[in-house]
Structure formats: C-alpha cells, structure tokens
Amino acid sequence: MATLGLTAPEKEAVEAFRRDVVEPSMTSLVVIDFWAEWCGPCKALTPILEKVTAAYADKGVVLAKIDTDKNQFIASQFQIRSIPTVYAMFQGQLVADLTSARTESQLKQMLDQLLRQLPIEAGGPGGPDIEPLIAMGEDALAEGDAARALSIFDQIADIAPDHAVVAAGRVRALMALGDDEAAQAALDMLPEDAAKLPAIEQVRAALALARDAQPVDDLAGLKAEVEANPEDHDARFRLAGGQMAAGDRDGAAESLLKIVAADRAWNDDAARQQLLKIFDAVGLEDPWVSQQRRKLSAILFG
C-alpha cells in the first residue's frame, strides 16, 4: 500500500500493516484474521485459527490478527463488510478467502491446498529464493524493458511453475510487449485453481481493460471537443479510453466520473462499469482505487 496523500494516522496504519503482515508474507503464508472484541463468531473462530496456524508454523504459516475497530482504515482498504473475515496472503498478494473455513478440518484442507500451489518452501534451507528474481522482473517492467522482464519471469517459471505472482508477471510482460494474444494464451493455460487466485484475476482484468482502451491519435483534439460539448458522453467515453491507453488513469477516471455524475444510466451504465474494470485491474487494495471509490460514492449517494 502506498502512503501518498494519506493522513498521519492512515500512514501509521499502513506502515504497521506492511511491517506485521506484508513483510512476513514475503516468505510465509500469512493468515489474516479480521475480528473485533464485540464479535461473538470471531471469538469462536479465533481458537481454531490459533491452533491450526501454530500446528502449521513449521510449514511456513503464520497468523496476523487485525482488530477492525482499531484498524478501520486497513479494514476499509480490504472492503471488510462483515466479520470474521479471514484471508491468506503470500508475497504481498491475497491468495485465498478462508472465511468459509469454520472447523479445523476445513481450515487444514484449504491450507494444504494453498501450500501445494505456492512455493512457501522457496525461502527455506536448500531451496531457491525467488523473491529477488521476482523483484528483478518487476524492476525491468517498471523501467519499460518488457523483453528483459519476460526473460526473467520465464526463468522463474522454470523454478516455480505454479507461482501466481510469477504467472501474472509473465502476462504483464507480454502485454507490455503488445502481444495480448500470447498473454491471453498464458492465462488460458493456467490450472483452474491458480486461475482464481487474486493476482491472476487482477492481471486478467488488466488484459480485458487493455483491449477496451482504444488509443486516440489526437488526444488533445478529442479533449478540446469534449470541453466544447460537455454533454457528448460518447466522446468523453472515447476520451477515457484514450487516456487509459496512454497510461493516464487519473484522467480516465475523471472522465468516467463526469459521465456518471451527468447521467449514470448513459449507455446502460457503461461509465460506472468501465470504472469498476479499472479498479479491478489496478487492484482493490490500492489506495488510488479507494480514493476513486470515495469519489464515485459521493456522486452516487451524495
């Protein structure tokens, strides 16, 4: 979670979450228990979570407890609407919703499945540590060297073929190279259980969004056209697509929010639906998405 634009208490909450949850998840599977003191079901579930995670500690499983009353900002980032809510995080990514597991056997079954899919042992003695390699791939993507990023992620995939973050990195590298067909093929080849992991769902949303975002040859001209005729929602919608294709997500969100504010029902709610696609592609835990969601809520319910 980035801290840009947050209040001091919010920054403190994010840093604590990063220290206590995200950083341990780099090498362990972190079970995150969102709970509150007044929650009866939470008190029933907590002993089960503590017992099972303690039993699985030697397998790389740890428990992190988040009191939603004391950590309202963090709870809002994860859109916690009821408790108990239990998630699993690995390498900074949510990889499973464990809320439905209310017995020891159910929780163990879900953890066993995750431990088979994820290279939790990678950081252990004698195993290859792929975290620095993933960081190299991400750095290459950030620097715009998609070909190098793809090469790195291909090498990591040989070590950890079922790693969701690595698979997502490969897809993003292919997208950056403009090979959406190969990116889609890579997604289609993933096993069904991996395809449902949050990292893969996010990159799938990004690929769908990339296909929707049509580049505009004269973006400045289209913007001037929209400013001259603010009620031309079709032109503004095309402007949003051009802005997204150009990497201007702030501009795209602003254009879509203006359509929603003017006429939510326009084109079967197309503007709001496109905003939701952007949120999915960016990642629902991203602070930018939270800011834009607040703007959308203010328009819809203000």
Describe this structure in words.
With 302 residues, the chain is an alpha+beta fold. It is 62% helix and 8% strand. It has a four-stranded mixed sheet with strand order 2-1-3-4, with helices on both faces. Helix 2 links the parallel strand 1 and strand 2. Helix 7 (164-176) packs antiparallel against helix 8. The longest helix is centred in the first third of the chain and has 18 residues, at 8-25. It is globular, with a radius of gyration of 21 Å. It starts with 7 loop residues before the first helix and ends with a helix.
Number of H- or I-type helical stretches: 15
List segments where confidence is low: pLDDT < 50 over at least 5 consecutive residues. Answer: 122-127
In the sheet with the most strands, the strands line up as: 2-1-3-4
Could you give the distance between the termini?
A: 27 Å
Tell me the quaternary state.
single chain
Q: What is the residue-mean pLDDT, rounded to a whole number?
A: 86
Largest sheet: 4 strands, mixed
Shape: globular
Strand content: 5-15%
Radius of gyration: 21 Å
**Strand elements, count:** 4
Order of helices and strands: HEHEHEEHHHHHHHHHHHH
From the helix content, strand content and strand pairing, which structural class follows? alpha+beta
